[in-house]
Design goal:
The complex is a heterodimer of chains A (490) and B (343). By secondary structure, chain A is mainly α. Chain A has 19 helices and 2 strands. The two termini of chain A are 15 Å apart. Chains A and B meet through helix 12, helix 17 and helix 19 of A and helix 5, helix 11, helix 13 and helix 15 of B.
Chain lengths: 490, 343
């Protein structure tokens, strides 16, 4: 069955390729092809998470595009303006530390329902108090850390004393929050208390360390070699995505497994919330991220004649059939392929992957076999969200960062999973490749214009048309095979 | 009849008296100051009440979860705007065209997307709606849609100009809302409406009884689509413009929010939800400034988590114990989401 589908897909791909090759010269065709694979790699990073999460826990995460966007913003921020993160991360961390610390005591009380509500309200009120007046706009200020536009640290940052007061208040907010969400009917054991205490102490120490070393940290990060800073950004973006994803699953999705439709409603609401948060902090306009110097070289030898020459020259582009192609996009393709292999290896070769595959088949059975499926759910959510976050950072030097990228990539990811079939990683890969190629080819046609015989001038359009037209593919797939190429029968 | 529906009739009477009451209380004429502003606010409430009501047909009565409802709202607004401004059509003819185009559009999208169920449908409709919003913002059609600025300055006869004849417009939109409410009530209570309910409760059983559920679902989609487009057309008349916001996903979220605040599947609930949302939105906006949208989103998330059956849903459940009423509602919802899950 799968083989037939594979052949079918390959046929379609070959047809598309033939079309592309037929109309264009060989070098243009090659560059369109590579552009398509580049986009496909990015789409795969988003769509694989959507697919994996749906396959395992039947949650369609509408906020996955937002995680992509959040990852991009997080990576871009640590890359260009770490000051913002160094000044706000302690507050977020200390709330978690407070919640972990308070949880030790809260678990000893049978907190009544009304008290939970009260505690939640108090926690929110204290949190508002803690962040009130924080000079976020100065911290965010575009190019705050670029030469010539530097806002002196002392002006942008709160004095350390004020920050310590804020951290103290935020800790109390965390304590209050722990009473709002203390688990009911769970026996506390000495070891779990010790673990919670250790967690709280470690996180609190990290928060304080970041706060006290914020200036040194800023210097250190900005002083880092450009490429190393980019790797840091990649890691940070992926970690941010994974953390937010895990928190989402644990705090918001988990209470709603009994009401599946509300999970979707919730994730759609989160799209809106994340969008507003980003607009509130960074403003509606987007920003560009520099391409790391490894892919930005220029000089007499550039563009590099081939891939091997590039390894010594690090040019910003490589000649492909005589036409320069940006080398950074080849890096995106490499990341996409590496992640595809990594996900496939995790799924096929690790114990976790075994549990995931079993869970996709029948999660209740897996639970009955004594495996903590809930923890695996959180882990998979974090994994999918981390992939999206990583994708965001990888995309940032190529596309920039802007709030609308959330909806844009969500749309493409949905088209990808509809084509490939929800729950299937090979489906996500093939679908992403297909949509990416279609987008690249469509962009090329739209920009160059279509001139049919008998027309005086070519009709050309904006890229928006190409973006919209990928939905056509989805419509066709829906008509022919509603479950997607690799989807199982309903 | 009068006894059973006294609440509805009292509400209607209050809304009819409202402009005059406002004028009396504020001591200003109908077309100035507070009364003028209050009527304007209420006009938006009526328009969004119809929009939310049309959404409730899908979500509450047929159990179809659509995330692309803004597409029809925007279609109505843009169709009317383009035909009246550039086609120089009369308003009435343009409204006719809105109905026809929305019916066709929803038929097409319904037939295409209703081949899939549950989350797939939500996903596919969101994709279609996003295409709509991409297209109206595309620079290619700037001459017609005004791209990201929107289409402004729709010429309307003086009689329909909301700035000149505010009270008339108030009653026009009130009448529109009431007529649509009665119409939808008729639909829901009709034999077809019972089939919708059957589909919501258990589609497999409805099929095994012998109903072609696809036809009924397409029917519900068309009715909902046309009503949403009419609301959009009225919205365009009210603003004398059609903006990309009408097609935005946030407009769909608004409809969802109204339906959830009011209580889905209750007809009057979403309309009340529209009132709550619009008025609350106005006051939050003046109070908080641009943060209000974020606050709104958070309220939505909290509602989904903690008050899933809305004002009317919970009100109606007050007879028995809340817990029992909720679990009954939950059972209802379980049938809704026929996940495309492997058997």
């Amino acid at each position: 069955m799968v083989n037939r589908n594979l052949i079918l897909t390959l046929l379609v791909l070959v047809l598309l390729l033939a079309l592309a090759l037929g109309g264009l010269g060989a070098s243009t065709a090659a560059s369109v092809l590579l552009s398509g694979i580049t986009l496909g790699a990015l789409y795969f990073l988003v769509a694989s998470g959507v697919s994996l999460i749906f396959g395992l826990m039947d949650v369609l995460n509408f906020a996955h595009g937002s995680l992509f966007m959040l990852g991009a913003y997080a990576g871009w921020t640590i890359y260009t303006n770490p000051r913002l993160i160094l000044n706000t991360a302690p507050l977020a961390l200390i709330v978690i530390a407070g919640a972990a610390f308070g949880g030790i005591f809260a678990a000893r009380f049978a907190v009544p329902r009304w008290a939970r509500w009260l505690a939640a309200l108090i926690a929110i009120a204290i949190l508002v108090l803690a962040v009130r007046g924080l000079p976020v706009d100065k911290l965010v200020a575009m190019g705050a850390t670029m030469t010539g536009k530097v806002i002196p640290t002392s002006q942008a940052e709160e004095p350390i004393g004020a920050m310590l007061v804020r951290v103290g208040i935020a800790f109390v907010a965390g304590l209050a929050a722990s009473f709002a969400m203390s688990p009911r009917g769970r026996a506390e054991t000495p070891s779990s208390t010790r673990r919670a205490l250790a967690t709280a102490v470690v996180i609190a120490a990290a928060a304080l360390a970041i706060l006290l070393l914020r200036d040194a940290g800023e210097q250190a990060i900005l002083g880092m070699e450009n490429n190393a800073r980019f790797v840091l950004a990649l890691g940070f973006g992926a970690a941010t995505g994974a953390l937010i994803g895990a928190l989402m699953e644990w705090g918001l999705i988990r209470p709603l497994y009994a009401r599946p439709i509300y999970q979707i409603l919730l994730t759609l609401g989160l799209v809106f919330v994340f969008d507003q948060v980003i607009r509130l902090i960074y403003g509606p306009a987007g920003a560009f991220m520099d391409i790391p110097s490894l892919f930005a070289g220029s000089g007499n030898n550039c563009p590099s004649p081939d891939l091997f020459a590039w390894f010594s020259q690090h040019c910003d582009s490589i000649l492909v059939l005589g036409r320069p192609f940006p080398s950074y996009r080849l890096f995106i393709i490499a990341i996409g392929v590496v992640m595809l292999v990594a996900v496939a290896l995790i799924l096929q070769r690790s114990r976790l992957g075994m549990i995931i595959r079993a869970g996709v088949q029948d999660s209740e059975m897996v639970e009955a076999l004594g495996i903590n499926v809930r923890r695996v759910f959180t882990l998979v959510f974090a994994l999918g969200a981390g992939l999206a976050g990583l994708g965001g950072v990888v995309a940032a030097p190529f596309l920039g960062v802007y709030p609308e990228m959330a909806m844009e990539f969500l749309l493409q990811a949905f088209i990808v999973v509809v084509i490939g079939g929800l729950g299937s990683i090979p489906g996500a890969a093939v679908g992403a490749l297909l949509v990416g190629l279609a987008r690249a080819y469509g962009d090329n046609i739209v920009l160059a214009g279509i001139q049919l015989p008998g027309m005086t001038s070519a009709i050309s359009g904006s890229p928006a048309i190409a973006r919209a037209s990928t939905v056509l593919i989805m419509a066709i797939v829906l008509l022919i095979k509603p479950t997607g190429i690799f989807g199982k029968k309903e | 009849m009068l006894k059973r529906n006294w609440l509805y009739i009292a509400l209607l009477a209050a809304l009819i008296v409202l402009p005059y009451a406002l004028a009396l209380v504020a001591g200003e004429p109908l077309d100035k100051g507070v009364p003028l502003f209050g009527q304007g606010l209420m006009v938006q409430v009526f328009i969004f009440a119809v929009f939310a009501l049309s959404y409730d047909i899908l979500m509450g009565h047929t159990g179809i979860l659509s995330f692309g409802h803004a597409l029809f709202f925007g279609t109505g607004a843009y169709t009317l705007g383009i035909l009246v401004k550039y086609g120089h059509w009369s308003i009435l003819a343009a409204v006719g065209a809105v109905i026809a185009i929305a019916a066709l559009e929803s038929l097409l999208i319904g037939v295409l997307s209703l081949r899939v169920h549950g989350v797939y449908f939500a996903m596919v409709t969101l994709a279609f709606a996003t295409v709509g919003s991409i297209l109206v913002e595309a620079t290619d059609f700037r001459d017609w849609t005004g791209a990201e600025d929107g289409l402004h300055g729709i010429p309307v006869p003086d009689l329909l100009n909301p700035a000149l004849h505010r009270t008339e417009f108030y009653f026009l939109s009130l009448a529109f809302a009431v007529i649509v409410f009665l119409l939808v009530k008729r639909f829901v209570d009709s034999p077809a409406g019972r089939v919708w309910a059957a589909i919501r409760e258990n589609e497999a059983r409805a099929i095994s009884i012998g109903y072609n559920t696809l036809i009924f679902k397409v029917q519900a989609t068309i009715i909902a689509g046309v009503l949403a487009a009419l609301a959009g057309a009225l919205y365009a008349l009210w603003n004398l413009s059609a903006t990309p916001l009408t097609m935005d996903v946030s407009t769909t979220i608004n409809a969802l929010l109204m339906t959830i605040i009011g209580g889905s599947g209750t007809l009057i609930g979403p309309m009340l939800g529209a009132g709550v949302l619009q008025l609350l939105g106005y006051f939050l906006n003046t109070w908080l400034g641009s943060v209000w949208q974020l606050v709104f989103g958070l309220i939505y998330v909290l509602l989904v988590l903690f008050l899933p059956f809305g004002i009317v849903g919970t009100w109606r459940a007050r007879g028995g114990s809340w817990r029992a009423a909720w679990s009954e509602q939950l059972g209802k919802w379980r049938g809704v989401l026929k996940l495309a899950k492997r058997r």
